[in-house]
Amino acid sequence: MTHPVVLKTSQLILAGDLKGAEKALANIADSEGDYALVEVMNDIAPKDLLAVMRGFDGSKQSVVNMLVTPEQFARAVILETRYRDQTHAALHGMMNAVLYRDEEMAAEYLEAIGEIEGGYEVLANYFAERDDEFLAFAISGVFSEDFDAEHGHESKSISWLNEKIEELDEALHEGNSIAGSRPKVPRSQIADHDWQETAWVLRYELSDIFEQIVITLRDRLQHRVEVLEEGEAEDSKPKSAPVAAADDEESAL
After folding, report:
1. pLDDT at 60 over 90
2. Residue 177: what pLDDT?
3. CA atoms of 73 and 52, how far apart (whole Å)
4. pLDDT (tens digit per residue) in 88-130
5. In whole numbers, what is the pLDDT of the chain averaged over residues?
6. Which backbone phi and psi does 59 adopt, to 5 degrees?
7. What is the pTM of this model?
């Protein structure tokens, strides 16, 4: 039998009361225990679970983020694209809150996301604001200290983007150059409970998933090149000569 709070949570979310929905779920943990809430969350629609979790990050912790299982989280987080958030800021904060509530379980959550359809896209979106440095880490195994987030791939030339794509293709086709390499820096050195640590965990504990994220971001670069080339081709087309105003007046007579 479905717990009454499942319907109540859905109704509160539809009404826009995310705090009320989170409180209703937290009350289950308080009155019936953590395990009871985990069971209830199995019955909550992933879109509703996502709506609650999006409102909480490391600065606003929620019992839902603390207790959600890897499978529950993966089913919910792949729906993030519905929000059409170009910055993916909410996704970033939500994932960090869940991944690093217990850093020993970060790989388990990332693996669950990577194994579900649409998971690679979500993980690529998580790194969207740092894709340049993420790809540099994929190639070199180290993180750059002079990265400028305001001058990412959107501002790069076609030639620069093509060079980056060639570098990635070379690394991807060199067998174990990405997936099989050993860490050049220990996890403790970059343990920021943020994107760098997430990238490290993916590369050295979940290398197959890491490689798929690299491929996803590489394909996005290729798409960016195609868009720029289409724009240049459009700009180079000869412009049609404007019809003289006198001709218009003559035809009107």
Report:
1. no
2. 67
3. 12
4. 999 999 999 999 999 999 999 999 999 999 999 999 999 999 9
5. 88
6. -85, -15
7. 0.85
Quote the DSSP letter at residue 161: H
| Residue pointed to by tokens 């959550």 | 109
Amino acid type, 88: H
In the chain, which residue ranges form alpha helices assigned H by DSSP? 4-14, 18-32, 34-43, 46-54, 63-67, 70-77, 89-99, 106-114, 119-126, 131-140, 158-172, 195-205, 207-236, 245-252
From residue 212, give the alpha-carbon distance in Å to each of 110, 113, 217, 234.
13, 12, 9, 33
Q: From CA 28, how far away is CA 60, in angstroms rounded?
A: 19
> Do 115 and 74 touch, CB atoms closer than 8 A?
yes
Structural tokens at position 146: 């002079």
DSSP 8-state secondary structure symbol assigned to residue 143 = -
For 17, the 3-state DSSP assignment is coil
pLDDT of residue 23: 96
* CA 27 to chain centroid: 30
